[in-house]
Design goal:
The chain has two domains: 2-119, NADH-ubiquinone/plastoquinone oxidoreductase chain 6, subunit NuoJ (Four Helix Bundle (Hemerythrin (Met), subunit A), Up-down Bundle); 127-164. It starts with a helix and ends with a helix. It has 164 residues and is mainly alpha-helical. The longest helix is centred in the middle third of the chain and has 29 residues, at 84-112. It is built from seven helices and no strands.
Length: 164
């Protein structure tokens, strides 16, 4: 069963990565990138790197891609609306795919940490060494990155304001 999940998530990652490249609509391309990030997170989860998997979902698929979508929709006003018939077709296929991926994620969580304990984190060293490194010797690059993201958001707002 683990091999099936691996091959399924690997296939989703490859197809989603190809969709990022071949899509003409920037919003669809960003959504395909989110699917790629989530499938890679499941692969990290299967490897026993739960912390990296959660960071992949929270930081990349959550924060960074929301920022990308926000900027794309601010700068490209044509991408705001979807065609009615295409939207209906996407909704019909999205519900079963989302349910399947949810069940796969639930299975992966229960298979790797069956009792809900932090046993897997303790065996790999846990989050504490990563936190000490991130907020110790890498504090300046961490803060510079956060300021860079803030400047990018402000720049997108300025660009969007000029077009109105």
């Amino acid at each position: 069963m683990e091999e099936l999940v691996f091959y399924l998530c690997a296939a989703v990652a490859v197809v989603a990565a190809l969709m990022v490249i071949v899509q003409r609509n920037a919003v669809y391309s960003a959504l395909a990138l989110i699917a790629c990030f989530c499938s890679v997170a499941v692969l990290f989860f299967q490897l026993g790197a739960e912390f990296i998997a959660m960071i992949q979902v929270i930081v990349y698929a959550g924060a960074i891609m929301v920022l990308f979508l926000f900027v794309i929709m601010l700068i490209d006003p044509e991408s705001e609306g979807f065609a009615v018939n295409r939207h209906k077709r996407i909704t019909i296929t999205a519900v079963p795919v989302a349910a399947l991926l949810g069940l796969l994620l639930l299975w992966a969580v229960t298979a790797i940490v069956p009792d809900g304990s932090d046993a897997s984190l303790a065996s790999t060293g846990g989050i504490e060494p990563i936190a000490r490194s991130l907020f110790g010797e890498y504090l300046l690059p961490f803060e510079v990155t956060s300021i860079l993201i803030l400047v990018a958001v402000l720049g997108a707002m300025v660009l969007a304001k000029r077009t109105d």
